[in-house]
Amino acid sequence: MKFGYFDDVNREYVITNARTPWPWINYLGNEDFFSLVSNTAGGYSFFKDAKFRRITRYRYNNVPMDAGGRYFYIKEGDVIWNPGWKPTKTPLDKYECRHGMSYTRITGEKNGLEAELLMFVPLKTHAEIERLTFRNKTESKKTFKVFSFLEWCLWNASTDMENFQRNFSTGEVEIDGSVIYHKTEYKERRNHYAFYGVNSPISGYDTDRETFLGLYNGFEEPEAVLEGSSRLSHAHGWSPIASHSLDVTLEPGEEKSFVFTLGYVELNDDEKWESKGVINKAPAKAILSRFDTSEKVDRAFNELKAYWDDLLSIYSVKTDDDKLDRMVNIWNQYQCMVTFNMSRSASFFESGIGRGMGFRDSNQDLVGFVHQIPGRARERIIDIASTQFPDGGCYHQYQPLTKRGNNDIGGGFNDDPMWLIFGTVAYLKETGDFSILDEMVPFDNEKGTEVTLFEHLKVSFNHVIENLGPHGLPLIGRADWNDCLNLNCFSHDPNESFQTTENNTVGSKAESLMIAGLFSVCGKSYVALCEYLGKDDEARRASEFISKMDESVIKYGWDGEWYLRAYDFYGKKVGSKENEEGKIFIESQGWCAMAEIGKSEGMVEKSLDSTKKLLECEHGIVLNQPAFTSYVVEYGEISTYPAGYKENAGIFCHNNPWIIIAEALAGRGNDAWSHYAKICPSYTEEHSDLHKVEPYVYSQMIAGRDAAKPGEAKNSWLTGTAAWNWYAVSQFILGVRPYYDGLVIDPCIPSSCKGFKVTRRFRSGVYTIEVKNPDGAEKGVKTITLDGVVISGNKVPVLSGEHSVVVSM
Ligand code: GLC
Ligand code: GLC
How many beta carbons lie within 10 A of that of residue 277, not counting itself? Predict the structure, then answer.
């Protein structure tokens, strides 16, 4: 069952039934001011950091789900309703929510009155615009009241929900005309305030939550709204909010718009005050005046649209399959931008409090984003590398506001360093900007420790070879990519986190085949980079270590039909036919097969066949089989999850594309395709009721075949799945792959596909690439013509201007 449909022309998903099986959300903002918005206008806003600079309040896992947001109450006679249906849930005559590229438009209609709410964050602006447009669709005059409502967060989203003995006394606001200013803690250490204004005179306001709602009422029945007039409350402590009220009259057929602006301002210490105790409102007024008419809002909105037109024109495809086209051209790329911005911090599954930017996560996100805004990718790489330690080890995460490593979240994940090579190489291939390798980058943000970024790549490479175990395979440390395979934790205390508990590496023999494959893949691209740069000695040195690693995998990492997953603390096999549960794992199949280790011995094909036979199910490829059914202390968190969920035999979508890519490298286009389509949102839209989360973005996990409800997805939006599927489909299935000196064309498609056309803007050129597959091949390019002339090989050189490439398979 579906709850809406794709509108590809407008690049929107249109929700027509407000009762989606879970809140279906969208993100507003592209650079530093961000908002989350659900299909019923729930959600919250923050500046840069969802933990330390939260602007509006949100309560997670609330009852009912998704309570709190930017709400507009309309009171016409005795009928009170919201354009987004919630929170009053008054039945609407019409409801529609259009989630688009960084904007959301919700339209509700009741008794001939239409209310359309357009929400977006204009480019380069620290504010969310909410334009509320009313249309009187009846033959008679309408008079009604409108109340806005949002709740301020006391900035630190974590203490905001715990430290009430302090919080209830600190709240401060100012009210000036139609603008409500939130200035809690501004008189002491904060240099920022927020404001919520409307471009019209108001008939009243409220800033104290209990006065507006009533202590015994919920968001669905604010007393002030029930009574029909604001109570003019001025918050002193307790819970400050912002609510305006307006009286509106509409003639038959008339339309009127109001622009509400939720903004954020930072000021230098010497500019903070207008007079004692009165904040300097000039910067807020400047923002308000930029959006004080509907025409100005239109202009800003069109700029946002043009921005996305441009971003999405960098890579686009035309096939005869709408579902594929809409993922490649719209939603997958859009989700890549969101994951680049948010890492794993703020979604309806991530509270915004727990996690900052992940070292491994953000590096992987780059491969989905780097073609969009390379300059921002460059900055990100430098930020990430600056948190690295001199020995190549890493903080697992850092805070976006301070850009400092955060050790409270755990460390010692031995896959982390490799991802810096992965991310940097992706940047270099896209841009050809080798100057980044000469940038001086510190260790652990310590002044005076700077070395070149290239040196950071080298210490990353060395970190693996300096941490090898008894079989010559990489020691796993706390965990590798799979945060939950904790071979050195031995935790018996339910109150400790596997991410931060003691990591008993002393005497540990725990080695990871996933890191071995990762090292081989990233190591080989490091070697190719060194060769390209003429660093032949370093290339030779690195190659030797990679050959040794590949040999160790062949000798100690092969189980007969698939790659082992690991050796545990005691040196016992993990992911072997000898094990009772967890006989086979996806990660080592994906990475060792992508590295093509043991290819000539037939290992790659066998591994992919075993994956298909033992791990594939109706909804995708599960992580391991058989699932763990009891707690294995020497394996850790993986065995804490009920069978079929998350890292314990869930379909962890992030790793499915590793198999897709390996299949594509092996030339098996039909298999690559069927794995791709199984977890791809536009293909699962048909069963949205089962799938539950948004049908326009990937989720981290779909419940596996051992679960109570296979096919039910969780943790949508913030997942490496977005970047990895983008990488898989754009570079390995459609096969248009940037390289240092050109575009490699190497499609691997289902044999039923007769051809497609990709338009790729690359460096200063635009390439129209037409692939023809009359004979139903899965892989293999016969000829390529560039502007009518046959070229040798399958790499098109870097050129300026427009070029036409015709490829015959
Ligand atoms: C989560 C983490 C990611 C990790 C994965 C597997 O998605 O963000 O870093 O690799 O889980 O455990
Ligand atoms: C848990 C989750 C894993 C996530 C990690 C992040 O271990 O299972 O997916 O990466 O937490 O802290």
Answer: 10
Please give the radius of gyration of the chain, using alpha carbons only, rounded to the nearest integer.
28
Tokens of 667: 């030339």
Summarised one tens digit per residue, pLDDT across range 271-308 is 999 999 999 999 999 999 999 999 999 999 999 999 99
Please name the residues in contact with 345: beta carbons below 8 A apart, sequence gap of 6 or more.
49, 50, 51, 352, 354, 355, 356, 357, 400, 718
Between helix 453-465 and helix 536-556 the angle, nearest 10°, is 30
How many angstroms is it from 481 CA to the middle of ligand 1? 6
Q: Judge if the beta carbon of residue 637 lies within 6 A of ligand 2.
A: yes
Residue 411 banded pLDDT, cuts 50, 70, 90: confident
Q: From 104, 113, 49, select the one nearest 82 (Cα to Cα).
A: 113
- Specify the pLDDT at position 6: 98
Written as six digits, the tokens of 590 are: 């994906």
Nearest-atom index, ligand 1, CA of 344? 8
Atom 7 (ligand 1) nearest CA: 719
Cβ–ligand 1 distance for 480 under 6 Å, the answer: no
Q: What is the pLDDT of residues 704-753, one digit of tens each?
A: 999 999 999 999 999 999 999 999 999 999 999 999 999 999 999 999 99
Higher model confidence: residue 500 or residue 80? 80
Closest CA to 260 of 294, 229, 302: 294
Per-residue pLDDT, 174:
98
Backbone angles phi, psi at 748, to 5 degrees: -140, 105
Structure tokens at 8: 């590809």
Q: Give the number of the atom of ligand 1 that is nearest the alpha carbon of residue 700.
A: 7
Length of the chain: 809
Determine the pLDDT at residue 408: 81
Pick from 624, 647, 700, 714 the residue to mutate for probing ligand 2's pocket: most ligand atoms within 8 Å of its CB: 647
Q: How far is the CA of 223 from the centre of ligand 1 (A)?
A: 45
Give the mutation target among 362, 483, 699 for probing the ligand 2 site: most ligand atoms within 8 A of CB. 483
For residues 569 and 506, what is the distance between their CA atoms, to the nearest angstrom? 10
CB 360 within 8 A of CB 419: yes
Mean pLDDT across 246-250: 98
* Mean pLDDT of the 11-30 span: 98
Q: How many CB atoms lie within 10 A of CB 370?
A: 25
Mean pLDDT over 645-670 rounds to 98
**Cα maximum dimension of the chain:** 84
Ligand 1 atom 6: residue of nearest CA: 482
Closest ligand 1 atom to Cα of 719: 7
CA of 482 to the centre of ligand 1 (A): 6
224-228 average pLDDT score: 98
Alpha carbon of 533 to ligand 1 centroid (Å): 33
Nearest C-alpha to atom 9 of ligand 1 is from which residue? 361
The Cα 185–Cα 193 span in angstroms is: 9
Q: Tell me the catalytic residues.
A: 483
Tally of CB atoms within 10 A around 577: 12
| pLDDT of 502 above 90 | no
pTM over 0.85: yes
